[in-house]
Design goal:
Helices cover about 55% and strands about 15% of the residues. The protein has about 230 residues and is of the alpha+beta class.
């Protein structure tokens, strides 16, 4: 039986059907989309300081995904081989908030769009994402923000007797100085009262020293332990 010599290009197919300029343009668009997603994450995702920090991978993931799809789209064997190789990869980084998955999907979708040269679709994607995020930001202050801006945690601990005496003043101070303030729970145990609440932002910004000083002044002479997450 005679041996048949098969050239590798016949199996793998052409490795390039588009000029180098097209590849460079796809990588530039992918990087720009990743930067845009990174910026949207920092601007609109208010829990980014407490999240898993997934935005740190955006700038690397976007171009990498684009190049990956460009490299395999001309060859079915390469595609199947990559599928088998990636089946051994396991990512253990926890996603602390499902909202972070949305930003990651935007990076992946825009990267695939760049790899397939569908730049118009990328523009439509970011227009829709920006519209949704701006809508969330607008409606978050009207009681319709369930789609939401992220919330933060506040825990106040003080003697139970002091809490009973100053509860009205304490709650009034918190409602005045915390946007989106909502009581989650209040427990008393062993002579200590703990108030757990949620809020979106503070009128003092990140000046929690000033906030604490004004809080203590509102419930003087009671002592207060404050935790903000």
């Amino acid at each position: 039986m005679p041996f048949v010599l098969i050239e590798w290009p016949e199996i793998l197919g052409p490795t390039s059907e588009i000029a180098l300029e097209e590849y460079l343009l796809a990588m530039i668009v992918s990087l720009a989309a990743s930067i845009a997603t990174y910026a949207l994450y920092l601007i609109f995702y208010r829990d980014w300081q407490r999240g898993a920090g997934i935005h740190r991978v955006f700038l690397l993931a976007g171009p990498a995904i684009t190049l990956l799809f460009i490299a395999i789209q001309w060859s079915l064997p390469l595609s199947l081989g990559l599928l088998g190789a990636l089946s051994f990869v396991r990512f253990r980084t926890p996603i602390k908030d499902p909202a972070e998955i949305g930003y990651l999907l935007v990076v992946i979708a825009s990267s695939i769009g760049a790899a397939t040269y569908n730049y118009e679709l990328i523009g439509i994607l970011f227009a829709a994402v920006a519209l949704v995020l701006v809508g969330q930001r607008i409606f978050s202050g009207t009681g319709l923000g369930g789609l939401g801006a992220g919330s933060r945690d506040l825990i106040i601990t003080m003697p139970a007797s002091d809490y009973t005496e100053h509860e009205a003043a304490l709650l009034q101070f918190l409602r005045t100085n915390l946007r989106g303030f909502k009581t989650a729970s209040m427990t008393q145990s062993g002579g200590t009262a703990s108030l757990h609440a949620n809020f979106r932002s503070s009128r003092h910004g990140d000046e929690w020293g000033t906030f604490r000083a004004q809080l203590e002044a509102s419930v003087t002479p009671a002592s207060v332990d404050l935790y903000v997450g």
